[in-house]
Every structure is written in C-alpha cells, then in structure tokens.
Design a protein that fits this description.
mainly alpha
Length: 150
C-alpha cells in the first residue's frame, strides 16, 4: 500500500512540475508566435489548471500525508511540533507547498484569466508561473532530502 501511495505521489508531482517545464520551455515560445496565441494560452491554461491545480494539488497533499506516516513515521499532527531533521524538512516542504497552492490558484483563476487584458496582468501571470516553477523544483529537492531521512 505504501509503495502505491508513493508512486501516485511521484506521478502527480512529475505531472505538476513536468507540465510547468513543458509550458515554459516548449509550449510558450511556440504559441507566442501564433496569431491565436491568446486563445491557445487560455485553452491550455484551463485544461492544465483543472488537472494540475484542481486535481493534482489535493492529491499531492493527501498522498503527502500518507507518505509522512509511512516514510517519516509521523502518527499525528502533534509530531510536526518535534524538532529533528525529517520533521524540519517536512515543515519547510509544507510551507512551500501551501505557498505554491496560493500562487497556483491566483495564477490560474485570477491573473491568468486576465492576462489578455493588458501587459500588467500578462507580466504578473508570467512572474507567478516562473515563481511557482522554482518553488516546485525546491519542493522536489526537499522531497528527495526527506527520502534520505531529512
């Protein structure tokens, strides 16, 4: 069971980060050149927001809770008030996760939907996307650190 939960966590995390990397490195440079770039970004954004933000982030949170129990040995929320390497790294990972949720929701459901209105919204959307990608990579680093004990 614990292997299946970790597998799901890794697949969803790969989708989350991989999707952001794909959009930043492959899709965006290509779509910007199209005459229908606004519509293309809006359509891709809606689809990715649903699968990445609405479905993916809650799955990451739920499987993360199970992983903290199966891998880290945490049995209750009170264990987060301990201070040892695994818990300290987990708390940092959780902080970055909640920051990425706030950024993703504001990017996907507010700024991203208004990016076509003016340059200000477009720039904010771009900065939020890049920031979320950087935080996501940092979260993956912390996940690797957790697998080695914190």
């Amino acid at each position: 069971m614990k292997e299946l939960i970790l597998l799901i966590h890794i697949i969803v995390a790969s989708f989350w980060i991989g999707g952001m990397l794909f959009m930043a490195i492959v899709l965006s440079p290509y779509v910007r050149k199209l005459p229908t770039s606004v519509e293309a970004f809006q359509e891709v954004g809606k689809r990715y927001s649903f699968w990445g933000t609405v479905i993916g982030l809650p799955i990451l949170f739920i499987t993360g809770i199970f992983n903290s129990h199966f891998i880290g040995g945490l049995n209750s929320i009170g264990d987060l008030f301990q201070s040892y390497p695994y818990v300290n790294t987990l708390k940092l990972k959780l902080l970055f996760f909640f920051i990425t949720v706030v950024i993703a929701v504001s990017h996907d459901f507010y700024f991203g939907q208004r990016a076509h209105i003016n340059k200000k919204y477009k720039n904010i959307t771009r900065v939020l996307g890049i920031t979320n990608l950087i935080i996501g990579i940092l979260i993956i680093y912390l996940a690797v650190k957790l697998r080695f004990g914190g």
